[in-house]
Amino acid sequence: MRYRPISPDVLTAELTDRIAALTHRRRIAVAVDGADDATAAAALADSLVDPLRTLGRATLRVPARGFLRPASLRFEHGKHDPDARYTDWLDVGGLRREVLDPLGEHGTGEVLPALWDPARDRATRLPRVPLPDGGVVLVDGEFLLGAGLAFDFVVHLWLSPPALRRRVPEDRGWAVPAYERYEAEVDPSALADVVVRVDDPRHPAVYEP
After folding, report:
1. How many Å separate Cα 127 from the centre of its chain?
2. By CB atoms within 10 Å of each CB, which of 60, 66, 114, 179 scores lowest?
3. DSSP state of 88
């Protein structure tokens, strides 16, 4: 595998250009997929907002953490169960129903930016946000691929196995098997439109086949 070193600013610029060029659907859903405990997926998604808006694309940020399931379901087998984190934490149906389906050709265009507040463990009750034609939704989170979610463009933030174990904080090391399982079962790098190696987030590198 060959990776092209790139600065964070140039990475943002290149991704902005590729997303802005997507005009095959009325509204575009973009995923920035990466381990919550070890990558800066949220920061990368945030960095794309203003450049896309400057190009005239209405842009909405939707963190996948706003679609976690209630604690009673996430922690049914304990708070440190890697299998539950992989299969049970994300409300895939809610993310599809409230975010991705409205973006479809016959969708309302009204997106719910968050369904659940995991800190307070209750519904957010946020209003829906209307997204005009040409609009872009940026979703960041982990385990976003392989679940049948209809994203138009996917960026996967990849870590080598040693870097994954090094970058996950010690108190969250229990989650490493979940990330390893995702890598083995889904192979997200094979499904993504862009793969970025982030062993050192200050010096990313883009995979070039």
Report:
1. 22
2. 60
3. T
Q: Which amino acid is at 195?
A: V
Strand partners, 4: 206
Strands (E), the chain: 3-5, 28-33, 59-63, 110-111, 116-117, 122-123, 129-130, 136-141, 153-158, 194-197, 205-207
Number of domains in the chain: 1
* Residue 103: both structure tokens together: 């973006």
The token duo for 172 is 């969250």
Q: What is the pLDDT along the chain (209 residues), one digit of tens a residue?
A: 699 999 999 999 999 999 999 988 999 999 999 999 899 999 999 999 999 999 999 999 999 999 999 999 999 999 999 999 999 999 999 999 999 999 998 999 999 999 999 999 999 999 999 999 999 999 999 999 999 999 999 999 999 999 999 999 999 999 999 999 999 999 999 999 999 999 998 999 999 98
Q: Which domain holds residue 118?
A: 3-207
53, two tokens? 């808006």
Instruction: Give 66-85 as a DSSP string.
Output: GGBPPHHHHTTT-TT-HHHH
What single string gives the DSSP state of each residue in 46-69? HHHHHHHHHTT--EEEEEGGGGBP
- The C-alpha atoms of residue 185 and residue 103 are separated, in whole angstroms, by 28
- Domain harbouring 85, CATH code: 3.40.50.300
Would you say 131 and 29 are in contact if contact means Cβ atoms under 8 Å apart? no
Give 141's strand partners: 33
